[in-house]
Write a structure and sequence with these properties.
Shape: globular
Number of helices: 12
Distance between the termini: 53 Å
Strand content: 15-25%
Number of domains: 2
CATH class of the largest domain: Alpha Beta
Structural class: alpha/beta
CATH topology of the largest domain: TIM Barrel
Radius of gyration: 23 Å
CATH architecture of the largest domain: Alpha-Beta Barrel
Number of strands: 21
Bound molecules: ligand LLP
Helix content: 25-40%
Length: 451
């Protein structure tokens, strides 16, 4: 099973992360509980920094906040990385409120409202990642002439189909994102930016082709398409674009069947492609950006649940019903995402921290279970078949690899308060986000006929 970097088993046969007994964390903070391994996040940031550092091109790593964002995470990224991608006014607020330097923020979003654009401009956001003509016009209108020019990048659609779930492919020809290169919209967008020359500074083009990508050869294609476009812009319009942002997307291992590439290999593919196509198209780039989300936080997080009822139904199918589910992890339902789990208070086997999906491997006899959530939906299944040691009510179930797109996509469905997040490191633990209370659920509610 793929547990976070610092996971171990202690002499009570409990799982520990960051030197903390997970069962004690569950007793202290309650469940469901997201546990984040700080050392694991730092290691990924470091790996991106080190591998995406080239002698011939200046490179910035921008963390994609949509994967997992809260105040403390912004503060960690502030220390560990140069940039933060936010994709809405709300994410921008979280970042600014945490003290994140606005000039290191990249403001994404494919339908920014006038208010969001004004908020971004007024707060000194470093870069607007412009998705469409409506946004471009609003930016041109709201930016005052003569003042400091607002840096922008144009999001282009390269027409590349990444090898991943179709819901998370974002660079196909018919995708809703960006200005199409093939349709000519991207060239037209560059022309229009020129009209706002005194107000907007075009620092580069951006593309994000998808997420949870294993086959990284598509990044070579992406770099080729982007540099070729830059050549066409230069030849056709005489405008020099010198930066490319290739988005995020590197896949991670959720189960032992997954064969993701790693950061080192991605860096080699991207750098080789930059060198090759800069030469081929005689284009000089001076800035490269990459925007990872999942591969920074995904493996660092787990969700700790408590088993409630353990139920045997037709054909001896056995359910473990946990105290959370689709409200804290919607990914199995949305993308048929696969997860692994273990019983954190029954960590018998030495292989528990290896890559076997049936994590508590030992002499202890195993049973097949379905791990289901507490929500009023038959589809609220987190893992449909897993072998675990016999589970009883009150056992602690850890579902691994929930650091990315779980908390950030969580909801209050069925009136479920959002789970707390605890950070662990070097034997210490502290809350990053408090558990919501029932009162939080009605915070914004107004009584019948009351104004
Ligand atoms: N940059 C942009 C513009 C993006 O839209 C995204 C993700 C990223 C970077 C980061 O991609 P990553 O490195 O995390 O793959 N909810 C889906 C994933 C949606 C990804 C959205 N965009 C999931 O749970 O699989």
């Amino acid at each position: 099973m793929i547990l976070p970097l610092t996971s171990k088993i202690n002499n009570k046969k409990n799982l520990t992360i960051g030197g903390n007994d997970v069962i004690e964390l569950g007793d202290k903070y309650g469940t469901p509980l997201y546990i984040m391994d700080i050392e694991a996040i730092k290691k990924q940031c470091r790996s991106y920094r080190e591998n995406f550092s080239f002698p011939d091109i200046d490179t910035d790593v921008i963390y994609a906040g949509k994967a997992f964002l809260c105040t403390a995470m912004c503060q960690l990224i502030e220390k560990e990385g140069p940039g933060l991608d936010v994709s809405s006014g709300g994410e921008l607020f979280i970042a600014l409120n945490s003290g994140f330097p606005p000039e290191r923020i990249y403001f994404h979003g494919n339908n920014k409202s006038p208010d969001e654009i004004k908020y971004g401009l007024e707060s000194g956001t470093g870069y607007f990642m412009v998705d469409n003509f409506t946004e471009l016009e609003m930016l041109g209108k709201f930016c005052s002439k003569g003042a400091k020019r607002q840096k922008i990048m144009l999001r282009v659609n390269p027409g590349i189909k990444a090898d991943t779930h179709e819901y998370i492919q974002t660079g196909k020809l018919n995708s809703k994102f960006g200005f199409g290169i093939h349709s000519g919209a991207a060239l037209e967008a560059v022309k229009r930016v020129k009209q706002y020359d005194g107000r907007l500074e075009l620092t580069g083009i951006h593309a994000h082709i998808g997420s949870q990508i294993f086959n990284i050869s598509c990044y070579e294609k992406l770099v080729e398409v982007m540099i070729k476009f830059i050549k066409d812009v230069r030849d056709g319009l005489g405008i020099l674009i010198t930066g490319i942002n290739i988005g995020g997307g590197l896949g991670i291992k959720y189960t032992s069947d997954d064969r993701p590439s790693n950061i080192e290999d991605l860096a080699v593919v991207v750098h080789n492609a930059v060198v090759k196509y800069s030469r081929k198209f005689n284009v000089r780039l001076d800035k490269l950006y990459i925007e990872p989300g999942r591969s920074i936080v995904g493996n660092a997080g787990v969700t700790l649940y408590k088993a409630g009822t353990v139920k045997e139904v037709n054909d001896s199918k056995k359910y473990i019903i946990v105290d959370g589910g689709m409200s804290d992890n919607i990914r199995p339902m949305l993308y048929q995402a696969k997860y692994t789990a273990c019983v954190a208070n029954k960590m018998d086997g030495s292989g528990s921290l290896g890559i076997s999906d049936n994590s508590n491997d030992s002499e202890v006899s195993k049973m097949h279970y379905t791990i289901a959530g507490k929500h009023c939906e038959s589809g609220d299944i987190i893992i449909s078949d897993i072998e675990l040691p016999a589970v009883s009510e009150g056992d602690f179930i850890v579902v691994a690899t929930t650091g990315a797109y779980c908390y950030s996509m969580s909801s209050n469905y069925n009136g479920q308060p959002k789970s707390a997040i605890v950070a662990v490191e070097d034997g210490k633990n502290w809350l990053w986000v408090k558990r919501q209370t029932y009162k939080d659920l009605v915070m914004g509610d107004i009584k019948l006929y009351e104004k």
